[in-house]
Amino acid sequence: MDFLADEEGRAAAAQSLEQCVHQGLKQLYQAQELCDATLVAEGRRFHCHRLVLASVSPYFLRMFSGSFREAQDGEVLLQDMASATLQSVLNYLYTGELTLTAENAQDLFTAACRLQLLPLEETVGRFLAESVSLESCLRLYALAHAHNHPALLHVALRCVSQDFGPLSKHEDFLLLDPHALIGLLSSDSLAVASELAVYRAVRRWVNSAPAERLPLLRELLSHLRLPLLTHQELAKMQADIAKRYGHVQLQWEKLGGKTRVQASGGLRQGMYQEGIVCVGHRMFPNFDEDDKEITDSQVHCLDPCAQSWHQLADLKGVRLPSCASVGRKLYASGGFGPGNYTLATLHEYDSFTNQWTKLPSMAAPRHKHAFLAWKQTLFDIAGDMPTGGDSAESFDLERSAWSPIASLPCALCDFASAVLKDKLYIIGGRNLGGNSILVFDASMIYDIASDTWTVVQQEVGRYYASAVAVDDGICVLGGVGRMDIGESDKHLKCFFVDEDGTLSEHRVLPQIPMLTLQPGVVRWQKRVYMLGGQGKYGCLFTVDSWEPGQCSWTEVQGWFPDRGYSALGSCCVTLQMPKEPLASLLQETSVSSVAVGVAENQILPRDSR
Q1: Which keywords belong to this entry (predicted)?
Q2: Same domain for 200 and 293?
């Protein structure tokens, strides 16, 4: 007991010492005692303490410990800083108290960055990030860019990018400095449908102060993605440049669809839309009109906004692969090939060129397996495979190489899978180590950073289900369990798995419209889509959607475009698709002449109106 009392006493003493020091500094500042430094702003003098300033600011530490004049006389003149701002900074340093408003936050942020007061910079930076709006985003973007503040820059850039067209006509846009403007021009996130809109923004910025900005035009144009202009847009831009600024010669090169993207550096956000892609398989009949075995997968894309389908390039020689996507790239691994044998192949589809490419194969053939994407890594996990169903491997997209990862605690197939944050989830399924109908009543969670698996037991066991991650957990849809027999509505129930792998007691999901095994499930924007799958009497061709918070599913108009094909499990993903007319331009098979840069010709103003 005495030992515990001593520990508590020491903790209380340490706390009181911290409070004592804090209170003592506050009193010394308020009483203006023992001051050995003076800060001057707008002619007003603030007496303070070198030790306090140097302990929290590398700026003041260098100034007071070096050979500067301020180290000798202790006086620091802070030009271009308002005295009210400096007063607030010192109050924060000595008392920890800070009053933030829309009126003083930007000045305090600038002062904190200038004086290298990191705690104050982060506090005010968070306040500004939370207050970003259409009215303030350009100013805050310029502020964050000038002071290299990543968090505020990310939030402000996202806001500017989403409304770049209207905001580029705003007065604050014309006040951007060249470096901040180039940062915008280099961004992939600009929501513009055509690069011509970016050129017009540059033109407005240059024309607002032609005397000083015309010499920068050639450099600014070099950040435009000219290969993404259609032939008509390019001609229009060239004519406008010649009319306004004299003869500016563009460099030309013959480029095909794929090399256009490479030469430009990639599409901007507004040039593509996210669609739902299904790598379909034929459930029946098993043979075509010539009685030949069908081994190809048809690929269709659903535009949820227009509720319309269009067909993409077929995946030749592969049936029932598992699919994943990263940006504009779709990946298909494993499945069945001719002769119904299991494949170890990996194929990549580029939506910009509408072409499939074969990548290095897996170490082992797989089907009914999990295929998940996290950042620039693909994961192939377990499944029904000749060598057992407990192995897993990963594919590094940047290195284009496979590596083994930790094996699963047991062999599984017919499970649901999803990615949530930095973890992979395997939910339910059938245990291949024993009876073929032994249901796995648990989840397995793979920690990518530590390369380890954790098993979490569950009260509900289900196989032939599908899963999709939402903001704070995973929705598990469809499938059956051993306890569903004799309970007609049991197979219609869905459940929610929390981040820790346990079943949520608070999240209730609506029943699915009908018995569905292995439906294709994706999240598109705020809605969850369930496509195809296998029903009581064969394959399904329906598409239903549900938005979290709603009490029922909604049937989406427009079934699968080919009634002979449907989709199962992980054959459905979201994918970035280029918009027209850029989609047709990128898929041109013949090369064409496009501008790829701006020559060194002198830019002469003709008409800056």
Answers
A1: Kelch repeat, Repeat
A2: no
Domain residues for 240? 31-255
Residue 529 pLDDT greater than 70, yes or no: yes
336 shares a domain with 419: yes
What's the domain count of the chain? 2
415-471: per-residue pLDDT in tens? 999 999 999 999 999 886 654 568 888 999 999 999 999 999 987 788 899 999 998
Q: What is the three-state SS of 546-590?
A: ECCCCCCCEECCCCCCCCCEECCHHHEEEEEEECCCHHHHHCCCC
Residue 75 phi/psi, 5° resolution? -110, 130
Joined tokens for residue 588: 């041109």
Dihedral over alpha carbons 572, 578, 583, 585 (to 10 degrees): -140
Report the pLDDT value the prediction gives residue 521, as an integer from 0 to 100: 94
Contacts 24+ apart (CB under 8 A), 204-211: 204/168, 204/169, 204/173, 204/174, 205/168, 205/173, 205/174, 205/176, 205/181, 206/608, 207/244, 207/608, 207/609, 208/174, 209/174, 210/605, 210/608
- Exposed e or buried b per residue across 127-160, where buried means at least 16 C-beta atoms within 10 angstroms of its C-beta: bbbeebeeebbbbbbbbbbebebeebbebbbbbb
Residues 268 and 291: their CA atoms lie apart, in Å, by: 46
The number of beta carbons lying within 10 Å of the beta carbon of residue 179 is 10
Same domain, 239 and 372: no
